[in-house]
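Lecture notes, part 5. Sequence design as translation. It can be helpful to think of inverse folding as translation between two languages: the language of shapes and the language of residues. The source text, in structure tokens, appears below.
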């Protein structure tokens, strides 16, 4: 299983220096990929709690630097690592502009971009771009359709309720087909919202971006069962499931003392988080994104990188 690192974008980051330092250090340390995330704004009185939980929005979310700008900076100073988004909220973007931006970064990087997308959850962000929660799935499907159209050979002709392209050249094109991964789905495939997300992943995506929630064998079994179901559905659609990948997101929070039996995955001591990395591998993950942006002790990018390097060495060797 490969390891990827989510780049620093949060409050307290020196964007002029830290993004470049993180990208170079992670590549030199053997990380296989670099990832960015999207947070458009920070409402003082949000419509809903954070990420569907019952907790308030964390203070570090006041800043989440633009994911495509950060990814471009990383592209310029690296040579081999994949460059991914986990995730972009489709409804916050105009589809053709997003397609063009991703293709441009792909050209700059020599064909290393991975596009991770999702429907999003924050009403405050959606309404800031003229969207609603009801639009989320439809706008994501439309964005995927636009990607298929404008990344294909010119001239491009496309029509949807929002987008009309009439016999036009849309350049640059990606170096090769950009893999598109989708978030969502969860592990309970019986819920209607999850079922819709799972069907979209199976039918449209090159892979899945789940979050490992439960540590240990139970978490591995739960994630593996969901992934098997997605690939089974994809096979029913006539797709080549050997070309699909599961890239697990690990939202890391280190603690001074070991977490108890009820802890969430990737919340605990360094040893426990290392065990969670192995759990993701046991679940069949092709890659794991290590995200240290949520860490409360985060006081410098250098400190974050030291922990990232130590975690990689602890789990994969120097």
């Amino acid at each position: 299983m490969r390891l990827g690192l989510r780049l620093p974008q949060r409050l307290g980051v020196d964007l002029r220096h830290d993004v470049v330092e993180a990208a170079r250090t992670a590549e030199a340390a053997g990380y296989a990929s670099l990832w960015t995330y999207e947070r458009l704004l920070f409402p003082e009185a949000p419509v809903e709690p954070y990420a569907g939980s019952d907790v308030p929005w964390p203070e570090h979310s006041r800043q989440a630097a633009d994911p495509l700008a950060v990814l471009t900076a990383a592209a310029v100073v690296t040579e081999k690592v994949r460059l991914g988004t986990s995730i972009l909220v489709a409804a916050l973007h105009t589809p053709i502009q997003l397609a063009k931006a991703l293709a441009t970064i792909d050209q700059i990087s020599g064909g290393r971009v991975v596009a991770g997308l999702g429907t999003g959850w924050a009403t405050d962000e959606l309404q800031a771009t003229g969207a609603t929660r009801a639009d989320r799935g439809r706008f994501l499907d439309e964005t995927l359709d636009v990607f298929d159209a404008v990344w294909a050979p010119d001239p491009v002709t496309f029509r949807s309720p929002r987008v009309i392209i009439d016999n036009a050249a849309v350049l640059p094109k990606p170096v090769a087909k950009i893999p598109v991964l989708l978030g969502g789905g969860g592990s309970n495939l019986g819920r209607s919202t999850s079922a819709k997300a799972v069907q979209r992943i199976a039918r449209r995506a090159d892979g899945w971006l789940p979050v490992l929630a439960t540590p240990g064998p139970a978490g591995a079994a739960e994630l593996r069962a969901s992934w098997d179901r997605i690939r089974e559905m994809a096979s029913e659609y006539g797709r080549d499931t050997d070309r699909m990948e599961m890239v697990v997101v690990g939202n890391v929070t280190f603690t001074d003392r070991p977490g108890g039996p009820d802890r969430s995955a990737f919340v605990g001591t360094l040893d426990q988080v290392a065990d969670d990395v192995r759990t993701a591998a046991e679940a069949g993950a092709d890659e794991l994104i290590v995200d240290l942006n949520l860490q409360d002790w985060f006081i410098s990018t250098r400190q974050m990188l030291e922990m990232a390097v130590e975690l990689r060495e602890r789990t994969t060797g120097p």
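The translated text above is only one of many valid answers, since several sequences can fold into similar shapes. Residues 187-193 have pLDDT under 50 and may be disordered.
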